[in-house]
Design a protein that fits this description.
The protein is an alpha+beta fold. The protein contains four helices and four strands; from the N terminus they run αββββααα. The protein has a domain of about 140 residues. Helix 1 packs antiparallel against helix 2, helix 1 runs antiparallel to helix 4 and helix 2 packs antiparallel against helix 3. The longest helix is centred in the C-terminal third of the chain and has 39 residues. It starts with a helix and ends in a 6-residue tail after the last helix.
């Protein structure tokens, strides 16, 4: 039952994180440029800058983080942070798919043997990696913004950022529930083993 709850949280968190990284606007801020203020919208894979024209913002260019081979417009994004953030986001989604597939296999196993416990432990370790990766993704994005000299507050965050933070919380709940499931199965197996080897009264 605990593993089923964990699986449900994992599905929800994976979907939320996948939806978040596909959305281009995680945070936005205004950067003073030569031709006036520039509105910067930062996502995981893209950064878009908009020039101010008659109190309105008009998007002039969007850059893909992955396609850039050198630092371009380093005043609105940092290449190293961007590549690390995008790579971790892709790894997180890929590992989530793998863990969901492994969890489906675990559901088909009826007997809880030593091998299945090791299999569950591997799933827990992968979920831990996913949780850490999703956490580092938005931490890197915030760190990049701070390094650019932009003050970080809730006003610059858009809903994809909050969705990603919520997904990290979902991964954490899934991880903790998996650990509880592992401990419960381990405790039950130890209790069965103790009852099996307990001396029986012959009289």
């Amino acid at each position: 039952m605990l593993f089923l709850i964990s699986f449900a949280w994992l599905v929800a968190a994976s979907f939320a994180f996948f939806l978040a990284i596909l959305t281009p606007n995680w945070l936005s801020f205004t950067w003073p440029g030569v031709d006036g203020n520039t509105r910067v919208e930062r996502g995981i894979f893209y950064v878009c800058n908009s020039s101010q024209i008659d109190n309105d913002y008009k998007i002039t260019r969007c850059l893909s983080m992955i396609e850039q081979k050198s630092v371009i417009e380093s005043n609105i994004w940092i290449y190293e942070f961007a590549i690390a953030c995008a790579s971790l986001a892709i790894a997180c989604v890929g590992l989530s798919i793998i863990v969901l597939w492994l969890s489906g296999i675990y559901f088909q196993v009826r007997r809880r043997t030593k091998e299945t416990l090791c299999f569950l432990l591997c799933i827990i370790l992968l979920t831990l990696i996913i949780f850490c990766s999703s956490f580092v993704v938005w931490i890197l994005l915030i760190s990049e913004t701070l390094k650019l000299g932009i003050s970080v507050n809730r006003d610059i965050f858009s809903w994809p950022m909050w969705l990603a933070i919520g997904a990290t919380g979902g991964y954490l709940i899934s991880l903790l529930t998996m650990i509880f499931s592992f401990c419960a199965i381990k405790k039950r197996k130890n209790k069965i083993k103790q009852n099996y080897y307990r001396p029986r009264n012959q009289f």
